[in-house]
Design brief:
Blueprint (H helix, E strand, L loop, with lengths): L1 E6 L5 E7 L5 E6 L10 H9 L4 E4 L19 H11 L3 E7 L3 H6 L6 E7 L10 H7 L19 H5 L6 H5 L5 H7 L3 H13 L4 H10 L14 E6 L7 H10 L3 E6 L4 H7 L1 H12 L5
Parallel strand pairs: 3-4, 3-5, 5-6, 6-7, 7-8
Antiparallel strand pairs: 1-2, 2-4
Helix pairs in contact: 1-12, 4-10, 7-11
Length: 288
Amino acid sequence: MKTHLLDLPGGQILEVVTEGNPQSQALVLHHGAFGSCENMAPIFEAAHSKGYFVIGITRPGYAASTRRVGRRAGDYVRETNAAIDHFGIKEFVSLGWSSGSPAAISDLQDSRCKGAVTISGDAPRVSDDWESYVSKYPPANPNTNPSPESDDFAGFDAFRNCKADELVGLFGPSLSRKDVEICMTSASEDLASAMRHGMAPGDFGALDDLESDAASWNIELEKITKPVAVFQGDEDRMCTPAHGHFLSEKIPTAQLFLEQGEGHISLLYNRASEMVGQAIKLLRGSHT
């Protein structure tokens, strides 16, 4: 992977990570919270193996991307616009993992975006009926750990200084059985390295994510006309199945891929090829 630092208006710097040679088409990736593009490694690898140019967008406030105060899900497309313009991309599909999901949805506003793929993705939690989804769609492994989406938080320094062998302890009850399995493999270093890299400049990337996640997206999901593939693990204890069901039911063009036995992290690693394959279908104009 190659890192680029793009100069944006107003003195903003945008960190972009690419894999492969620029083409007229691309897959655009948006990383999860407390991290950087490195935590999308399995998607980079799967897309590159299929011959596609891949662009990873580092959200403002993380790693070398300058903070953009007040950023919200509805305007995340700004950074994507800049990267797409820079590489001369004519058509693309966006994939977002976890807190990167709102950015993938935001990218649908760009006329060049053919569709989006959300992976263990956040849904907006300000809807009047959000709590009904939380109650109706709990994780399939409710008795293995304390309640999901708890308020327990390890602290920013724990993420910034995380080592590979500390992942399981850091995320604790938020991990499913398969998540723990992934965190005991070599993937743990990619995940830990992504957090160290993303959080190195300070807390603002994570703080702005948390603030944005808790606010309105300013995107009318019901009016989306481009195809969206929603991948959700039924044992996800970070973004519980409520998120996937919410997105798939509110977006009229969405298709839900509910993966049995997968958690928040395991879905990204175990289903990477499948998700990239779906993104390529969208890029080619087919979503059946």
